[in-house]
Amino acid sequence: MSPRGAALAKLAFGALGVVYGDIGTSPLYALRECFSGTHGVAAEPENVLGVVSLFFWSLMLAISLKYLTFILRADNNGEGGILALLALIAPKDPKARQTLGRAALVLVGIFGAALLYGDGVITPAISVLSAVEGLDSSTHGALEKWVVPITAVILVMLFLMQKRGTARVGAIFGPVMIVWFTTLAVIGLPWIAKRPEILLAVNPMHGLSFLVGHPGAFLVLGAVVLCITGGEALYADMGHFGRRPIRLAWWLVVLPALLLNYFGQGARMLELGHAAVADSFVGLVAGWVQFPLVAISTLATVVASQALISGAYSLTRQAMQLGYAPRMSIVHTSGETEGQIYVPEINAFLMVSCVALVLGFGSSSALAAAYGIAVTATMTITSILFFDIMRRRWGIWPAGALTVLFLAVDVPFLLANVAKLEHGWGAWFPIVVGVAIFTLMTTWKRGRQALGERFRAATMPLDLFLADVERTPRARVQGTAVFMSSSPDGVPPVLLHHFKHNKVLHEQVIFMSVSTEDVPRVSRKKRVRVDDLGHGFFRVVAHYGFMQSPSVDDIIRRCAEAGLRTEEADTSYFLGRETLLTTGKSGISRWRIALFAFMSRNARPATAFFQLPPNRVVEMGMQIEI
After folding, report:
1. d(CA 475, CA 504)
2. Maximum pairwise Cα distance, the chain
3. What is the three-class DSSP state of 362?
4. Nearest one of 484, 492, 450, 28 to 279, comparing CA atoms
5. Residue 63 carries which DSSP code?
6. Distance (Å, rounded) from C-alpha 410 to C-alpha 381?
7. What residue spans define the domains of the chain?
8. Is the pLDDT reported for residue 201 higher than 90?
9. What's phi and psi for 505, nearest 5 deg?
10. What is the pLDDT of residues 115-142, one digit of tens each?
11. For residues 137 and 110, is the Cβ–Cβ distance under 8 A?
12. Interval 132-154 mean pLDDT
């Protein structure tokens, strides 16, 4: 094999674990839910053929056609995911952001990102719980009371392992998922051989006849969607592996294994009728073989959970860099792969939420009611954002025709899941989480915009300040002062505050600002720009992508390469610590201002976020009305 082929195979192998963990574990519960629960149908032959046909064509249309063939083309310099799309949609012209249509699209994209957190909470809970329930089935109910405690322990251990880093936790991803997908195919084949008529389900007429002829068929779509819940996750992970490896893993391994297993479960239902529903997956094997099957199932669900957890970390960092979330702790767990990070605050939130869900719902069937709505809403939003991007590349008619096809699949799934809202509080959970996260993200964005407007109003033009320095010499002290500012224009308010009280300036003064670009990564050569303003003043603007974490040490090294040298021991960093007052006239409602102030007080300090040496940081207090 050529070096290029070997590299492609290695990436495809890695994609099996990280990208396809979520969709790969759906056979544990997806088909079973169509024949059980509130809207389950009887496992009669025509119904089985109809539902399996819907599974087949959902995988082909939603995953193979929509995501693998087209959505992966809507990338932001190789990165995927809904926030990567949002960065493409937000125009560079500030005036264009004020248009109603553009603002609506941005809000829709933010809500889609918020819903992904709900998905990140539910996926680990339902995946691990459904696997452990197989232990109960294989022991004929003897371990029923231990299912929930065992699941809770596994989830707690999984989240406690996160601080060790994705690289260590993910070392077994590929091998486990190879075994898992092989197992899915092998245990489904004997039942297909026994009832080969299940293969007739590839005919779409069986699915259409079921939808048209069965009175509860539309609501069953709320369970059918469980087989494609990993679509958005594979798009978000595109930046880690690239299009070709993800597509290669799908066509050669994942899709064949999933189809063989779903068809195998369907064949068993043809053979045994409704008696095969309760243990539709673990019942594919008998006797002692069920125990190793439960073990490998549990490992596979841990892999699926890990993929969603890592995705939540990446989503959080993107939200922070794009200005939709306050500063949080970003721990880099690998010196080789920049994307491997750990966010303690998000990890704690997910752990508590997942365990609470398991304790509150008690079964994967109950959780299934809460699962689909977040996924289908996000998939629908992705289709809408895809149209806005692709109409610029392809033209409005080709992009529109394709988007209509996508929505013809997405919208029925979404409406079927919306119907679940009438049947218990569980279906409301992801909506509540999504609305809460959406409120926090939009409040932070609006609050930072208002704060920026106040800073700009109080900022002195740079040319006036430099002219004043030249006209009236000021006392200068030895060393370098670095004044951090959110805007590269004008004189940072913290410098004016410092000069007002201390009456002196350092020999070398640096105005430093960090700008987040609408691209995933900025190369090292383009990362820092240094402008010599004269009289010992310099402006430094550092550019980072929304997938990167800024570091002042890195910026200072780039400055040295550009000719601006500093002595570490003689360099001080000046930051503003704002006290927010709710008595201003920003136009923001009082409750939002109070929420923004609370988030600001609890955000990670800039000292830690920018990795500043704490013993050389000076904070200047300021009161600001918004």
Report:
1. 5
2. 95
3. coil
4. 28
5. I
6. 9
7. 3-423, 451-625
8. yes
9. -125, 155
10. 888 877 888 888 888 878 877 666 666 6
11. no
12. 78
